[in-house]
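Subgroup meeting minutes
Present: P.N., E.W., G.H.
Scribe: E.W.

1. P.N. recapped why we're keeping a running log of single-chain structure predictions: easier to compare across weeks, and new members can see raw inputs and outputs side by side.
2. G.H. added today's entry (216 aa).
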Amino acid sequence: MLRNLILASFIAGAAVSNAAEWTSLFDGKTLAGWTSGTGGKPSDEWKVEDGALHRTGKKPGDLISAKQYKDFEFEFEWKISAKGNSGVKYRVQKSPGGWLGPEYQVLDDKGHPNGKVADTTASSLYEIAPAATDKELKPVGEWNVSKIVAKGTVLEHWLNGKLTMKIDTTSEEWKKLKKDSKFAKMENYGDPVAGHLLLQDHNDEVWFRNLRIREL
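Output recorded in log:
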């Protein structure tokens, strides 16, 4: 009995020690670890204010993570301006049309036209899979807590502690949704590959903070 308890304790301890640790992707003070869309220094129009990243100015461009990630759990907080639109892309690859990858939609559902289309509302997998209709979205100006989980072919979006979207990119559901989307002709869209994270510049004010990631 004692031997079994010792063995169980050893296994549990090993599991804890092997678990990936969370890594902060924003120090609250600088844009270290992020680049512009061309790989250079980010625009000064991405401001660091009160421990948050603030997209300001006329055209600051996207923020791209310096490191690539394949299987991960990524947590972040965001708030959007009135009628605002933005997004967080992941497993992003450079393509002839720009940076391409699945997108967690960041949106003012009540004020922006995309809020009237199911698969372009906040927390949706943009233009592919809609977020749950019973999601809990904070009003404009308040912080939302979001999470993206990408493991193999399964993608999950979370919003304020609730799962809002889950899909397997090998499923018949995915094939149908992709076929009916603007990504239909992009053969490798959604594949489980290592790619960058991207904080989107969509011409509207948006704020991000408490960005952290754990590789799976």
